[in-house]
Amino acid sequence: MDRRNFTSVSEFLLIGLSDVPELQLLFFIVFLMIYIITLLGNLSIICSYILSTILHTPMYFFLAHFSFLDLCYISVNVPMMLVNFLAERKTVSFYGCVVQVYTFGLCGGTECYVLAAMAYDRYVAICHPLLYNVIMRRTVCIWLIIGSYLIGSTNSLIHTVITFTLPYCGPYMINHIFCDIPPILQLACADTRINQIVILVTSICVVVVSFMLIVISYIYIVAAVISLYSTSGRKKAFSTCTSHFIVVTIFYGSVMFMYLKPESNASNQDRLVAVMYTVIVPLLNPFIYSLRNNDMKRALLKIYNKLALPK
Predict the structure, then answer these.
(1) What residue ranges define each of the domains in the chain, with the CATH number in brackets?
(2) Largest alpha-carbon pair distance within the chain?
(3) Is the pTM of this model over 0.90?
(4) Model pLDDT for residues 146-176, shown as the tens digit of each residue
């Protein structure tokens, strides 16, 4: 294949969420409100962690980083989606697509291992409470976060490089709501079997391995909780894990559906699932963690009272 076909690509066209003109303004309003609420919700968690000393624990350290990733995660795609809802031609520049694919992969891969780190934190807190401060010391937490970012960035860099060094010969219509690797590969006029193998292998390393680490942590947690004689002790132990388990279920369920299924043409179902893990999950996370967490609610209330008091 002539490499000039690759270098001539200047922009891609996106199918979008719907091709019905009457729905575009409605989608714009709905997604704008979701974006604003998500930004405010995740920023409130980050600010609560920074400003409230009672939240300076490993659990909230990981949660603050998770909220930061959610901010980046939703900001990678939604602003461009908002622009395209009102545009006649839903386009993204070639290099804009490259940046979007890399940043999206970085945030997604990092989130997987931050969730695993959060599960490990809960495992240590419940199964080894007397050693918690020793095991989950500050340096360990920092290295867990650094490791998560390194895995996410390495995984994303590999995918970005092998995807955008392929030749593309048109039409440059991405059958999706944003630049994502599987629908982009469908536009390549070259053999993509190596890319598909890399997607499968890295998905196993990033998604499946991190998910198995979470499952193993919860197996030990459940076994430890069941052995407790006190009903109130069981309730308290489970309550500290419920929010994390809900987020894990929603996030991994939608991600595995998208990236671990057999190769097929993108469909409306794929676009709806993509909305779930790129838009809805970041929206729900602040509510799940804040509404089910008394420490977070107290910290938020304390900050609100300080801001609301007249000077």
Answers:
(1) 4-308 (1.20.1070.10)
(2) 71
(3) no
(4) 999 999 999 999 999 999 988 887 778 888 8
